Amino acid sequence: MKKSILFIALLASFAGTLSSCAVRADYGYRNHYDRYHHYNGYDRGYHHY
Length: 49
Hints:
Lipoprotein
């Protein structure tokens, strides 16, 4: 019984790490995308957070 709880906790922490990495990658990509478009004067001010 304790082993399964431990396994679920491990799985949850792994999933959390994965999702946070995905969010960070997506945010970094959007930042790059915004900078690129603003540099070109295209789509200006559309993605301001």
